[in-house]
Amino acid sequence: MGSEPEPEGVAADATDDPPAVELDGVTKRYGDTAAVDDVSLRVREGEFFTLVGPSGCGKTTTLRLIAGFEEPTAGTVRFGGESVAGVPPEDRDVGVVFQNYALFPHMTVGENVGYGLNFADPPEGLSRDERVAELLELVDLPDAADRDPESLSGGQQQRVAMARALAPGPDLLLLDEPMSALDARLRERLRMQVRRIQSELGITTVYVTHDQEEALAISDRVAVMRDGTPEQIAPPRTVYREPSSRFVAEFVGDNNVFAGRLVDVEGDGESDDAPRTAGVDVGGETLRVAVGEANDTGVAPDDRLTFCVRPEYLRIGEGESRLAATVESAEFLGETTRVTLDWGGRDLVVRTRDPLSGEVVVGFDPEDAHVIGIDEE
Amino acid sequence: MSDASRGAGSRRTLREQVARRLRGRLLTALAVVTSAVLVAAFYYPVGTVLIEAVVVDGVPTLAVFAEVLRDPFYFGEFARLFAGESPLAVARALLAPDRRLGIVGFTAYQAALSTVASVALGLPAAYLLARFEFPGRRTLRSLTIVPFVLPSIMVAVGFVATFGTNGTLNGVLAGLGLPPVDLMFTLEAIVIAHAFYNAPLVARVTTAAWESVDASAVETARSLGAGPVRAFFDVVAPQVYPAVLTGAALTFVFTFGTFPIVLALGGFELATVEVFVYRLVRDLSYAEAAALAIVELVISLGVLLAYLRYEARNAVSSRGVRPLPRKSLVPDIPSLREVLPRLGLAAYVVVAGVVFVAPIASMVLASVTGGDGALTLDHYRFLIDRQQTGAAFQVRPWPAIRNSLAFASAATLLALPMGVVVAVLTTRRYRGRKLVDAAAMAPLAVSGIIVGLGLLRGLVFGVEIAGWRFAATGAVAIVVAHAVAGYPFVVRTVAPGLEGLDRSLIESARALGASRVRVIRDVELPLVWPGVVAGAAFAFAISIGEFTATVVLATGADAYTMPVAIERFIGRRLGPATAMGVVLLVVTGLSFVVIERLGGETRGL
Question: Which residues are bridge partners to B470 per DSSP?
Answer without folding.
Answer: B463
